[in-house]
Amino acid sequence: MSNQKEVAVIGAGLAGCEAAWQLGSRGIPVVLYEMRPTVMTPAHQTGQFAELVCSNSLKSREITNAHGLLKAELKLAGSIIVQSAEEQAVPAGSALAVDRLLFASAVEERIKNCPHIRRQNEEVTDITALQQDYSRVILATGPLSSDTISQSLRRILNDEGLFFYDAIAPVVYTESVNMKIAFKASRYGKGDADYINCPMNREEYERLIIGLRQAEKMPFRDFEQAKHFEGCLPVEVMAERGMETLSYGPMKPVGLRDPRTGEQPWAVLQLRQENRNGELVNLVGCQTRMRWGEQKRLFQEVPGLENCEFARMGSMHRNTYINAPLHLSSNLELKNHKGIYLAGQITGVEGYVESAAMGMWVAMNIQSEIKGDGVPEADAQTMLGALVNYLMTASPDNFQPMNSNFGLLRDSGEKRPRNKKERRRLVAEQALHRWQNLLDRIHWPVA
Prior knowledge:
This protein is an alpha/beta fold. The strands form four sheets. Strands 10-11-12-13-9-14 form a six-stranded antiparallel sheet. The chain has 13 helices and 16 strands. The protein has helices at residues 14-24, 66-76, 80-87, 100-113, 127-130, 147-156, 202-214, 235-240, 292-299, 324-327, 352-371, 383-393, 420-441; strands at 7-10, 30-33, 57-60, 89-90, 95-98, 117-120, 136-139, 162-168, 171-173, 183-185, 195-200, 267-273, 280-283, 310-312, 315-322, 340-342. It is globular and about 70 Å long.
């Protein structure tokens, strides 16, 4: 086949390898670009494909866990990442953890032996220039995308909606908030009661501030030194500025009255709806670098959150990603620049398996376009579809990256058991059934 029919994949991380493998193994010619080891990132240690730079864990295997369900869906679709991880697993209880070097080698060996994948060891500096030689371009350069490729993407997006630093607030399941204490209201009763408010008296508020100051924080790595913008300061940094900083900032109680007392609280931690179905809410203004255990301990001391269940912990780190609801179509193609697709964390997902899932989704869509098979639709009752649906429907004004969690799944409306584990097992089984139906519908044989 001519170059015009080849697909270019930029970046041989988890998403890029997944996309390249799924296309190449189905006879669609791919050129996989990787700049390492010629040009290294601050985090990578080798030039291997699919190098894991943080943890060696791909999280739970259990389908009653959202990460386990996502892996099960990917396995049904023939994921190179999940298959290689299972082959190179090390003991880790119910989690899927791997020997990093053996895992990367296994992925790279499969890529190397695929006759329809050609490797190109060079740094791509201009995304649009590749479109002259390839039918489609998939950008899968990850959270540490080089400055040159980031600037190329920024030009495509007209300098709008490309982020280089994560400031993520914790997200909790709405049903776990104690509404006997928390209350729905907007300040001064204006508009709808869009926020859930957790009221604090002076003692409770000051105890939280002291805890935030004393909490153990995650250190910055050398290449991601703190870049604190006034609009997204870590909550602990605001606490260190003074006892009343938060009560005059994101926790100000002005215009709110606690229905239990009829009085204005000393401070209020507000929760804002995170997804369209309302099953998730985020802690407004609480982006943080505290360790996860500290986050859970401190935020569960806030009245109304004593039994809250976390869907995502807060974090702040260097991360290149786009404002997905603003720029991406459901096939992960740029709305304003056809032929350029995104995959991996740059789309606005968080996590190893989530990144690979976006590589899978791009490949499924491109394969369907090229072969003329049925177009896959993002089924929000599957975990992968729910992630794609989140990217499409999250608020572009408050967009933050998301990992897989059950709060993203669309409710089928069926009656479920009260026991949470049993309820999630049934939801997961239904998701896997629906996912298999989708694979059958688009004629997706496992490679």
